């Protein structure tokens, strides 16, 4: 995860280690609110979201903006991150991307990853099945980069920070970041207070494939690519006005983000990727017309109770572990995670 020097020089606030709580309050809560508005979900391009069993916080996502399936998986610990205040509550997540074998990005996978992707452990949805998903937990396989999520203790500000050591990895991480930032902007009626792209030299050399989640700041081409977004939110009372731009916590997060920023090298084409990943809709989604009565998918149209957002945007014959019995056609011996 992001590092700034020898471990002995860094003091980590132990009380900031609540990764599951951060994921639930920022990511999971935002997606639960979004699932009640199918129109907004369609505009965001989140065509599927499926929580994975067997892990404290892991999920699979499908996005209209990029082919293939994605996975996010919270890591057990995190190092110091200078881009957020020292006492911020934080979570670091590994972002995985599972490209289709016919997609150009398939060539970016390692030999082991290509072999697995072509194997029988994947479903037509593009995601690994439950058994393979659980086998992948704790490994760097299919890792594209990291998503660092932080919030203040009062729930008035959130920071989402995507980074990768490769251009291909950053594109995948940026697609996930875009969907989550737009979701937060919509459900909290807010807009970014700071958007900080950067491309900085790698600080240490690690695995040559750059996929180890503990060395995600290592790159083969000399850069670590990143994009951080800071937004005022209202995590304790979603739907109510977010914190103001001049709220002390919002200003602390904004100051930390800009203070840690490093100028990109304009001579490198990859160095321009983070800035190109910014999206205008992050500033306009707060004004989208909400349709709170919209059903998130056809199987919920009759008012069936659903515990979490779930995926119906692709043809598949595997069970998604729904908590309602409306779909019997999804049953099979093994589902996605």
Gross geometry:
globular
Helix content: 10-25%
Main β-sheet, in a few words? 8 strands, antiparallel
- Tell me the number of strands: 8
Rounded to the nearest angstrom, the radius of gyration is 19 Å
Distance between the termini: 25 Å
What do you see in this structure?
This protein is α+β, with helices and mostly antiparallel strands and 337 residues long. The protein contains eight helices and eight strands, in the order ααββββααββαββααα. An eight-stranded antiparallel β-sheet has the order 1-2-3-4-5-6-8-7, with helices on both faces. Strand 5 and strand 6 form a beta hairpin. Helix 1 packs across helix 5. It is globular and about 50 Å long. The protein starts with 18 loop residues before the first helix and ends in a 53-residue tail after the last helix.
Could you write a compact summary of the structure shown?
It is built from eight helices and eight strands, in the order ααββββααββαββααα. It has 337 residues and is an alpha+beta fold.
How do the strands and helices of this protein lay out in sequence?
Layout (H helix, E strand, L loop, with lengths): L18 H16 L3 H7 L1 E6 L6 E6 L2 E9 L14 E10 L12 H8 L11 H7 L6 E9 L5 E8 L2 H21 L6 E8 L21 E10 L15 H12 L13 H4 L4 H4 L53
């Amino acid at each position: 995860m992001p590092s700034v020097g020898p471990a002995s020089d860094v003091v980590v606030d132990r009380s900031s280690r609540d990764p599951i709580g951060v994921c639930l309050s920022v990511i999971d809560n935002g997606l639960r609110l979004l699932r009640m508005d199918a129109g907004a979900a369609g505009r965001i391009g989140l065509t599927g979201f499926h929580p994975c069993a067997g892990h404290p916080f892991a999920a699979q996502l499908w996005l209209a903006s990029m082919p293939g399936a994605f996975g996010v998986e919270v890591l057990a610990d995190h190092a110091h991150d200078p881009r957020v205040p020292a006492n911020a509550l934080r979570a670091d997540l590994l972002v995985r991307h599972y490209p289709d074998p016919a997609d150009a990005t398939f060539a970016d996978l390692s030999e082991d990853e290509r072999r697995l992707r072509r194997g029988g452990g994947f479903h037509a949805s593009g995601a690994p099945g439950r058994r393979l998903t659980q086998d992948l937990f704790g490994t760097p396989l299919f890792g594209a980069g990291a998503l660092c999520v932080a919030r203040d203790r009062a729930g008035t500000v959130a920071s989402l920070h995507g980074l990768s050591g490769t251009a291909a990895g950053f594109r995948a991480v940026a697609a996930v970041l875009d969907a989550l930032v737009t979701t937060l902007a919509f459900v909290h009626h807010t807009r970014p207070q700071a958007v900080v792209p950067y491309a900085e030299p790698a600080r240490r050399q690690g695995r040559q494939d750059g996929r180890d989640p503990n060395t995600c700041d290592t790159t083969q081409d000399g850069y670590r690519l990143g994009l951080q977004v800071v937004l005022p939110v209202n995590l304790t009372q979603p739907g109510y006005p977010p914190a103001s731009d001049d709220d002390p916590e919002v200003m602390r997060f904004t100051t930390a983000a800009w203070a840690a920023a490093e100028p990109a090298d304009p001579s490198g084409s990859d160095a321009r990727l983070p800035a190109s990943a910014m999206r205008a809709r992050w500033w306009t989604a707060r004004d989208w017309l909400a349709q709170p009565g919209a059903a998130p998918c056809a199987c919920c149209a009759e008012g069936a109770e659903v515990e979490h957002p779930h995926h119906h945007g692709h043809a598949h014959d595997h069970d998604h572990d729904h908590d309602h019995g409306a779909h019997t056609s999804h049953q099979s011996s093994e589902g996605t995670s």
